[in-house]
Amino acid sequence: MDIGFIGLGEMGAAMVANMLKSGHQVRVWNRSPERAQPLADAGARIVATPAEAFAGDAVFSMLADDAALREVVTATLLEHAPRGLIHVNMATISVALAEELATAHASRGVHYVAAPVLGRPDVAAAGKLTIVAGGPAEAIDQVQPIFDVIGQKTWRIGSLPQQANVMKLAANFMIGAAVETLGEAGALVTGHGLAMQDFLDIITSGLFTGPVYSGYGKMIAEQRYEPALFKARLGLKDLRLALAAADAVTTPLPIASVVRDSLLEAVAHGDGEKDFAVLGQVAARRAGR
């Protein structure tokens, strides 16, 4: 397929690398052009503007937040996009913006698919992402070969793109809650002279199996928050988006508020660029350690 790709952070770059390995033609654009050069060496074509990427069979975007997506995917860009083009947005954005984008794309004859992913950069590099897709079924069918290259499974949520974003925000809220409890439990056991690693070995042997508890728990036990695989400031953004989505349907999320405040505390202490696991450091600091 002839693919455009906008946004070459760690996640986006890993996705493009796998697309290239599978023989797809990929045009790439990034606000910091130097990030595109390794992909160009692997066969991608660097383009000078987002409009040049917004063509071909489909265009994928993986930008950091609502503001970045608004800046790039403007009404002007959509007006010049070929009718029938499929835009697949893989970023975690607000439900409100997803609804707005779906309407704007439809009015200009461009298909919009929301396909946020579950997984960190190492998972993306391995082509093992979990993809949550919402949008027109025929559009998803056309880009499914790309999803099969970058992910291990695609969950189709329905025809409304914003519902995929709700699923992703709910999942990230749960990840945040798990990391928060790991940090607090770690502060409790270490306060009594016990080793966090011993505690982690016990809980992950049966009660709390899975990559969230084992992965983030290990980072907390080792107090290893850099390099970040998922930055605390991005986690804060996602918790804010989850709370906004909950507010829109009058749904209290008291635990999400706690996690949001803990992440805000991390950012206030200059730890926004550290990994999400830095919630363990927040819990220890609150305990005076």
From TrEMBL:
Residues 2-156 form the 6-phosphogluconate dehydrogenase NADP-binding domain. Residues 164-277 form the 3-hydroxyisobutyrate dehydrogenase-like NAD-binding domain. GO terms for molecular function: NAD binding; NADP binding; oxidoreductase activity. It comes from the Bacteria. The active site is at residue 168. Keywords: NAD, Oxidoreductase. This is 3-hydroxyisobutyrate dehydrogenase.
